[in-house]
Structure formats: structure tokens, C-alpha cells
Specification:
By secondary structure, this protein is of the alpha+beta class. It has six helices and six strands.
């Protein structure tokens, strides 16, 4: 039986989805990755459950990758944060392949426990190549979620208009009504 993913925002690119395994609920920080059960939920949510196991070694390495990515997202270009993500990337590589379907690529790991964290770090490189200015933190002061802005004009501010965007609008409305 699959346990539902409790997070308020899912479906972001895997690198940002890993960051979003921490979120705020009623002013309290939540963390999906406190054990292998949460790791299993995250792996399933990202289609990685068939490739990687939800064991303690994988959890430990995935948490290391999350911390490295969080440091780099919070401090883009910081040499220490960059080195931490680069260290995660050092645990895997891409092998070029050729099959009947044509050319391809296949990730390889000396230690498969690094697979999910490496996959997230590699995805972050793809986001940096495509549109680094579209990697965003939610603009709501009480939210710690991240998203990749895919809006046409690139002006998305909230992780979710239904949640954080609505709260911000309601706060502004309340402040205006209180001032009148």
C-alpha cells in the first residue's frame, strides 16, 4: 500500500522537489526525510523507486545532497556551497549508450545509495543551464518551498497561488480593512 505524499507542493523538478521535503505547517517545520519511510514516499513521488532502495545509506546520502543543494540555492555562486554540490556529483557519472532505439545516456554509481541525491544534483545543473533565473523561493515570508517558474512571462511569486498567494492577498486585504 502506497502512503500518500503529505507535502503541500509536489511535481517540481527533482532537485527542487528534494528541497521541498522540508516545509512549514502551522508555523512548525516539517521534514519528510526523517526516516526511510519518508524516503520511500519521495522516491515514489519522483519515479525513482524502481531504481533505488529506501535504506539508511540512501537516506544519509540523499540528506547530504539536500543540504548541499539548499546551501547553493540560498547562496548561488558561493564557493563552499558549489563545492558541496560538486562533491555529490562526484559520486556518479553519465555513460553514453547506443541501443537499437538510438543514442542515450545512463547514470552510473560506484555506490547506488548516492543515486537519488546525485540525480537531484544533476537535475539542478540542468535547471542552471536552462533558466537559472526561474529557480525561485516562494515569496511568502512564512514559506520555505522552492519552485521552477514555468509561467510564460516568468513572474510567478508563490509556490501555490491557492495557498501562499491566497494568504498574502488575505493579509493585504485584512491590513487595508483594519486601516479604514
Amino acid at each position: 500500500m502506497t502512503v500518500p505524499d503529505p507535502r503541500p507542493l509536489v511535481g517540481e523538478p527533482v532537485s527542487l522537489d528534494l528541497l521541498n521535503t522540508r516545509w512549514m505547517a502551522d508555523g512548525v517545520r516539517q521534514d519528510l526525510l526523517t526516516g526511510t519511510g519518508g524516503l520511500e514516499i519521495w522516491l515514489v513521488s519522483n519515479g525513482l523507486d524502481g531504481r533505488f532502495r529506501a535504506d539508511t545509506a540512501t537516506l544519509r546520502h540523499t540528506l547530504a545532497a539536500r543540504d548541499a543543494l539548499a546551501a547553493l540555492v540560498d547562496r548561488p555562486g558561493d564557493p563552499e556551497a558549489t563545492a558541496r554540490v560538486d562533491a555529490v556529483l562526484g559520486h556518479g557519472r553519465i555513460r553514453a549508450t547506443l541501443t537499437a532505439e538510438g543514442p542515450g545516456e545512463e547514470p552510473e554509481f560506484a555506490d547506488p545509495a548516492w543515486g537519488p541525491g546525485w540525480t537531484a544534483a544533476r537535475d539542478y545543473l540542468d535547471l542552471l543551464r536552462a533558466r537559472p533565473d526561474r529557480i525561485r523561493a516562494c515569496a511568502h515570508e512564512a514559506c520555505i518551498l522552492h519552485f521552477y517558474d514555468t509561467s510564460r512571462n516568468g513572474t510567478r511569486r508563490w509556490c501555490s497561488m491557492a495557498a501562499c498567494g491566497n494568504r498574502a492577498k488575505a493579509s493585504r486585504h485584512y491590513a487595508r480593512a483594519k486601516d479604514n
